[in-house]
Write a structure and sequence with these properties.
It contains 12 helices and 15 strands. By secondary structure, the chain is α/β, with parallel strands linked by helices.
């Protein structure tokens, strides 16, 4: 078993990730509803489409709530220079009085790059940029000097020269499925994120490459091996891809498998990235997954692209667990 006693004893945390563009009172009311439902974190996706810009969404949600943490899941590193990412992150962390979590990723949707005229390099180059950027961002947020002459970025600044470091440390989440990104998470992240899926080069196809229990254990092992002695301090986060409330798990899994294609119903029932069953069964599943995998932080999707929000069902599950 990879999960350590430290991971198994971590308190469960729950996040809702959204991209819907809400304005004014609607945005504030939504954040308060997420907080009232019992979620710990509200995160914002980062896509070049009619969506809520992540830093604006996180700031609005933080100022409308008292307990709720806010963040990005995940910020596309290629859309911003790391100095700008650090500056914006410090601003939200300061406004929220330490309730901001920064999620970073290498980007994967070629169509967005093409539409915006941003070069879409092969994955190795994008991950290389992420590796350099993460180190710069971490140092700047911690108030350290930065002296980088890398393949992608050149930043030279003394401690606190380019921004005022926030009073509270900003947790860094690095999420992905590839080994190189997960090794980066092991070296530098406070939170390692797993989704169980792999996109092809231009993100026109999705493979459930690490969607089962063995796949998740394999990806966690990558983080563990890179983290060394700091592994127990890394929070493990999973992105739940589907939530289906039902009294007939077998029938619901068959329907979902037909809708997804290329996956057997039994594999969906066994996947740590899917919740199928009653609210009571889901609560038991999540408690078991913390014990089995050490994953204590689970995120579900808000309404998007015709997908209903998992918020009301997870609210029921959280109340049972707590």
């Amino acid at each position: 078993m990879i999960a350590s006693a430290a991971h198994r004893s971590r308190p469960l945390r729950f996040g809702l990730t959204t991209a819907l563009p809400r304005s004014g009172a609607d945005a504030r009311d939504f954040a308060r509803a997420v907080e009232s439902a019992g979620f710990d974190v509200l995160t914002f996706a980062d896509h070049l489409m009619p969506a809520m810009p992540p830093f604006a969404g996180a700031t609005a949600a933080a100022t409308a709530t008292e307990r709720l943490r806010v963040g990005t899941l995940v910020l596309n590193n290629d859309f911003r220079h790391p100095v700008d990412t650090a500056r914006e992150s410090a601003g939200v962390a300061t406004v929220s009085e330490g309730r901001f979590e920064l999620g970073l990723g290498a980007g994967h949707m070629k169509s967005e790059y093409d539409a915006a005229g941003i070069p879409f390099d092969r994955s190795g180059i994008r991950v290389g940029r992420l590796e350099e950027a993460a180190g710069i961002i971490r140092a700047m947020l911690d108030g350290d000097a930065v002296d980088v002459d890398g393949a992608h970025y050149r930043v030279h600044a003394g401690p606190g020269e380019l921004l005022a470091p926030p009073a509270h440390r900003v947790p860094l989440l690095i999420g992905g499925n590839g080994a190189r990104v997960l090794r980066l998470a092991g070296r530098i992240a406070d939170i390692a994120g797993f989704a169980g899926i792999t996109h092809n080069h231009d993100a026109t196809e999705v493979a459930l490459s690490h969607f089962g229990p063995d796949g998740l254990l394999d990806r966690i092992a990558v983080v563990r091996d890179a983290a060394g002695d700091r592994f127990d301090r890394i929070e493990l986060q999973g992105l739940i891809q589907a939530v289906v409330v039902t009294d007939d798990r077998a029938a619901a899994a068959a329907d979902l498998a037909e809708a997804i294609g290329g996956v057997a119903p039994a594999d969906l029932l066994d996947s740590p990235f899917v919740l199928i069953g009653t609210h009571e069964q889901m609560a038991d599943m999540l408690a078991d997954r913390r014990e089995r995998f050490g994953v204590s932080y689970w995120t579900v999707f808000d309404e998007w692209a015709g997908r209903p929000s998992a918020m009301p069902d997870l609210a029921e599950v959280m109340s049972l667990l707590r």
